[in-house]
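For consistency, the fold was encoded as tokens, as this record shows:
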Amino acid sequence: MDSTNLSDSIKNLKIKEDKPKATYDKAALKERWKILGNDAEQNIVSMIRKACMNTFARNDFMKTLQAIKASFVHRDYEGIFTESSNLEVYAAAYVPGRALCYYEIFSSRPSLLKILMKRSQLYCIGSGSGSELVAIAAAMTRVPAERQKIKLVMQDIGEYESVLTSFEETIRERWSVTEDQLSCVYEKGDILDPDSTLIKERMSQADLITFMFVINELFVKKAAALNLIQTLVKSMKSGAHLLVVESAGSFSHLKVGNKTYMVYMLLDAIQDLELVISEDSRWYRHPDNLKYPIDVQNMRYFIRLYKKK
């Protein structure tokens, strides 16, 4: 074959060209890493403490916290989350441990970091107390900002506007997260409402849907929760992700007939969901020298990340 024919043959081949690698400002990313400093966990809880200063000053803080703990023992979730006087205290007490745990999850899992590096919509169910907001905003400082444009839709049944506003304002002040990088929307409503067109719309729009320590609460109403799961899977767009994090202990037991299952077994059996991350038991333990007005709890949890086929 002469050189002319060889050249023509090469031109006719459909050669897959290498796509240029995404570029980012390495110096800018290095500066972003400095936002949380050398002790990211302490930085995060210090931010939470500042956002909750007025709550800690309440005379009834410890009394309200003890009542909340008693309600958890009896699984009286509605009593906790529909009583407005409880919500600020609940956030101050429970957000630190969960936010640190969620931060570790988002900042150490490539599948989740990729979502935070681009234009994405996140629908966080039961996220009114602010744990997801804090964790996601902190994890966002660990990736390049060039194409970062996150819309965070937080849904919950309680009156959490003031709690989330305080967290958002403190986050923007301390961590320099702009509204262009992270826009926040809070929508109050019952996620188990089968007639809510807004909830279905949010599910269909989301690139990532999260259930972080909320599945067990929903399954107190078993039939409604099962209906929600069916609606969720049907509504999710192809390629969207579902993140479920929940207690790895007996609180996640689901009784069906005479048998007891872990709640993740129900989700693992759904054929339309591809399992991406699966750990049945994992501990998050915070640093021993963490400084916060009250004890911050360590957490044992299971994690599932699914991708809609």
Observations:
- Residues 3-17 have pLDDT under 50 and may be disordered.
- The beta strands are 119-125, 149-156, 182-188, 208-212, 241-247, 253-256, 259-262, 273-284, 299-308.
